[in-house]
Fold each of these.
Amino acid sequence: MIKETQDRGIGMVICGFLLVMAVRAWGPSLPIPRQLIAILFICAFVGGLVLSLWGCAQIARARGYSLAFGVLGILSLVGMVAVLLFPDRLKQTAINPDNGPTGKP
């Protein structure tokens, strides 16, 4: 597993989650028109979703899986936990590099 890539992915998912939660919590109390709050919420939601998707894709890549598993980022923190629970394919092949991920020659 590429530790830096996985750590970066975890940070992205958490930042995306916090971005959405911050706008949700403090957005209505801001002294700006409702239309701007709506635009701010939509931008934060899309930005948080993109961060979460990309972060889960980076975690999956660091564990030896396809970037397509980044789709689990739609589930935010739950998706990140799901990807983190996947077995690490890169660690398995590093033990015996002559064998594939299944351990068969």
Amino acid sequence: MTKQEIAKLIAVTKALYPNHFKGYSAEDTEYLIAGWGSVLSDYTYEQAGAGLKKFFASDTKGFPPSPGQIIFNMPPQKTEYELLAEKIIAEKHKLAAQITMKEGKN
């Protein structure tokens, strides 16, 4: 995830929890971006965004999330085997459709 994407996540968080971030300086925000970036660097913007959205939807305490809470709320990642299986199934469906079309022409 890029620094700009981390900054977007933090901007949304700051907008939803304005009182918490009221006294933050630009330097404080830069440190926050760096901290979140070091923890979230192995994840995509989409994964982190989904985790953040789920956190926001279920937050009942009124405090902004930590990076760990964002990770906890991310949808499960698919394994390499699951991704490969999806690819094989999609290819199987594509071939079946081609065979059906050929049979329909004969």
Amino acid sequence: MSGTAPVLTRRQVAVYEYLLQRHQAGDSPPNVAEVCKALGVRPPGTMHEQVRALVEAGLLEPMTAEQGGLRLKAPGWREPVQLPLLGYIEAGHTPTT
């Protein structure tokens, strides 16, 4: 995400605020059907468009089969960085120089 805030539609703001409220309340992340019901959105395909836009704006994590719900990205989240592996140290052994 760049230094400027993404421009969101009213519906996208409503979805984001709903997810933020649930997160702050300590509730589990809702699925698309739960968000549709809470916000009175029909059909669910419309909600998928909103979710896709929030993912592209960097506000939601991309949905996966393992992930049970729509999850907000943590503030300050960045793409993972691949670090080089320099070597191995056996467990229980002190490296000698």
